[in-house]
Amino acid sequence: MSTSEPLSGPARITTGPAWALAGLLIAVVVGLVALGAWSATGGPAFRLDDAYIVLNNAAAIVGGDASFPEVRPLHGSTSLLHTLAVFLLGLAMPPDAALFWLAWGAVLAQALAALFLARELQLSLAFGLGLAALTATAGDLIRVQVNGLETGWMVAAILWVLALAATRPTRPSVAILAGCLPFIRPELAILSIVLLAHGLWHIRSRSDRRAAMAFAGTFLAVTGALCLLQYWLAGTFLPVTGDAKKYFFETSVMPWDERAALSGTTLMRFAFFAGGPLLLALLVPKGTLARLAVAFALVATLALAVMHTAILPQNWMRYLYFVLPVAVFSLAMLRASDAPGSRRATMLILVAGLAFNIAASVPRLGDHLGVLAAKRSTLEQTSDWINRNLEPETPLLIHDIGYVSWATSQRLFDIVGLRSPEAVPINRALRYQRGAEGQADALEAMIDVSGSCTLLVSDGWNSIANFTGSLRGRGWSVLPHPAGHPPGHQVYLLEHIDRRTCNGRD
């Protein structure tokens, strides 16, 4: 099969009402499932506190940020385009509702991309519907795909751009979407370059200099415009979230054998609990574009495994979800090829993948939705506690900044560094270079920089990182707040007689 010309094969109906009705059916099903999720949780709810960072930053575009008044609105946002989409949709509805419907819209976009891909490759409508169902159910739906972050739209964007490029790699829409990819997730810049080179290679075979200039010019214009917008809204041409998370969660002192073991375990867990049989399609890519896409997935996975070993397993391995649309694309390309046994192999992968996805998600769906509602209730009560018991202008040292920054006007200092850039060099010099031994020094430096003598951490993170224990080990008085702890969190007053700040004499 050649990828330089539109695919040929047995004549099938690829336009007309049947495919449109299939798309409408998919939209209805996804909409009903989304309404069911809304009803089960009593409104918009998200598993990760980071989702509320998106809401806070989107609101800061116009209204500013009382919690972090010194930084640009989108400083600490990973995805420029996702945050802007939340802001724009939030003009028409409550912001959390906008984030909810945008998250489920990504699931719909994924399914429609799979259906479009099947039509472009002249596959049967039945296989296209199966491919759409496989795509929409792949991975962890509630905790990852609709987590309120850019994950779902990353999956959708990858599949759409590959589907568009499958038969016409020089379409203007390919150049536009390829230029947008790094502003959905930064690591997708690798795929952007691959698609640009692939399109130019096809144009070169026609010796059409004008077409090459138009394709490259469109790509560069989109990328350049978004770079400028990113700088205007965030103060940097590229997101800083990668560095902030790396220097907080990673450590350079982790031995390479431990790093390799952790990465290997994470990749196996992703294969067995998220990817399933669908990942088998990565083993037999057919066509140049499929091979390039699989190469991108492998390179990006290896880069993350080496550079972000400790981050990779977090949040149910969401950082690896770019692999899923590549696997869907490879499966469709294998189906469209005339390779021996391809029809039987693709049908087996499709059926097994659907069975795996349903078995992995449906039995736990109720529990996952219940956790969402409980998480939102905990965050709401914590924010109410802050509004009742803390002075808004008194800085609060905090680990999970999302909901608190969105729902209160409390001055905050983010110890991870997503919204407090002063924390990043501190974590780089102390936590990253020295590991757990540098944590107390890092916290002391942040206390001095922020002037904060109050610490708020979640029960879970304090049990993992032992923030309070490390401070007590350095002679700090770490006392529970007189008003008690809010649900799921711990609030402490910090005092040290020998420190410049929090010495009881300020």
UniProtKB/TrEMBL annotation:
Q: Does the keyword Lyase apply?
A: no
Does the record carry Transmembrane as a key word? yes
Residues spanning the membrane: 20-39, 123-142, 149-167, 173-201, 213-233, 266-285, 292-310, 316-334, 346-366
Q: Which UniProt keywords apply?
A: Membrane, Transmembrane, Transmembrane helix
According to UniProt, the name of this protein is Glycosyltransferase RgtA/B/C/D-like domain-containing protein
